[in-house]
Specification:
The chain has a five-stranded parallel β-sheet with strand order 2-1-3-4-5, with helices on both faces. Helices cover 38% and strands 20% of the residues. By secondary structure, the chain is an alpha/beta fold. It has 17 helices and 16 strands. It folds into three domains: 3-31 and 429-536, OB fold (Dihydrolipoamide Acetyltransferase, E2P); 37-296, inorganic pyrophosphatase (n-terminal core) (Alpha-Beta Complex), CATH 3.90.1640; 319-424, Roll (Diaminopimelate Epimerase, Chain A, domain 1), CATH 3.10.310.
Length: 537
Amino acid sequence: MSRESGERQKLETLERLTKKRVEELLSARFEDGFKELKDLPDPFELHDMKRAVERIAGAIERGERIAVVGDYDVDGVISTVIMAEFFELIEHPVETVIPNRFRDGYGVSAAILERVEADVVITVDNGITAFEAAEVCKSRGVDLIITDHHTVAEELPEAYAIVNPKKRECSFTYPDICGAQVAWFLVGALKRELGLDIKMSRFLDLLAVAVVADVMPLTAINRPIVKRGLQMLSSSRRPAFEAVRAYLGKKSFGAMDIGFLVAPRINSAGRMDDASHALKFLRSKSLSEASSGWLKLEELNRQRRATEAEATEEAMEMADPDDSVIVVAKEGWHEGVVGIVASRLVDRFKKPAIVLSVENGRAKGSGRSVGDVDLFSLLKSCEDELLGFGGHKMAAGLSLPIENIDSFRAKISESARSLDPQLFVPKENLLGVLPLEEIDWELMELLERFEPYGEANIRPRFFLEDASVLEAKRIGAEGNHLKILLSDGRNSLQALWFGYEKIVVPGDRISITGSLSINEFNSKRSIQFLVDKIIFK
């Protein structure tokens, strides 16, 4: 049986949907109903929060020096912005430091601390594995307060306080939050400790970007935060977001806009040069400053795309499709794009992938997973081969001596071979077969109620079965997209296939998978189907 025949057979077993059934299936994602902002837990539920804020409050009252150490991705930069903005509001000076990926490596480190003069050091979106930094702080009489959200190992650094919802001692109701949210809860607790009147909602536009960019589940408390934050982005007076609206020509934003348009540009600073460009952009005090910052990020993002494309092509040729985990390494690969390249390998081979950049006898890189394979656990099983690692189930960073690359590749593939093969199956996440007669404005309003879509609340994807092609024409500046008019004999629907892989002509009978969206052009709104796969009859 061919792969396409197998896919067709699988698709034909899908449930046939009605609007009522679509609503039932989407509602099941929210067993406790939709949470509201009023349902957010008390920040003091986070273990060590009270100890952390009492120490910071004391430092503020005594005029002590405070430094904040962030991270170079979107989550880490926004965490730093939230902290900097809060301390600016209360007029207490604070030093903010974001490590340079190439010179400093990840997170707070002994090298970073050499440049910091402070009585209290607060980490945001990093620090849970900062054992050496904790020792340096202790020897210098500096109180280290770690705020992080990454997976916690058995041992913890010896810090003054560690605020991380994934700690075993922590009973926080919703542990699946990003680093910026932990920083935001810290600021909220500190506001209460100091008896200040600061509205925490002022940060929600920033938080929405961080939550989406860090691929947090858009359920539970993350949903109302992102929903409100996306609404704020449409009218935010923050100069950075005024510039975003102007340059992207958008008045409203969805989670996909953040994931595909905004986050990559912010991320490009830390990937290609220095995250300080992103920090400066987000903290811009005028539209002119923000516009200059955005143009800089645009240029870095163009560089990132070109560098990524070259490395991806090389990595594809080097990958061994017989390995259970793809591991490729090369000298000269840009460290800032290896994570994206790993994602491309996962898409191609449907297996976890690790891409390593080699320099000065050391390999450093990123991995991405597939299906339900826990990449962090796989790395844990090979930690004797590594200099260090950290991250999540689906994404992780690591480093190792170059002489260990081959043995590491063999060992991690061996560990993966012991897993249930079903764990490697990519999630198709098709809701079911949707008849054209069910597609109308009532359905679109129903789908809108469950927004924003994203991780753990993915945009519903449907299977449209056996439709006739009435019209098909190429569109786009280079003619690399297809606009298709479909019919079941009674109902018609416009579909778009971006970057089409096969030509479609009138008279073809096809089945397609994809999602529904609303097209707005010249003040007219129409329903369209965004195609991700076509199966010919």
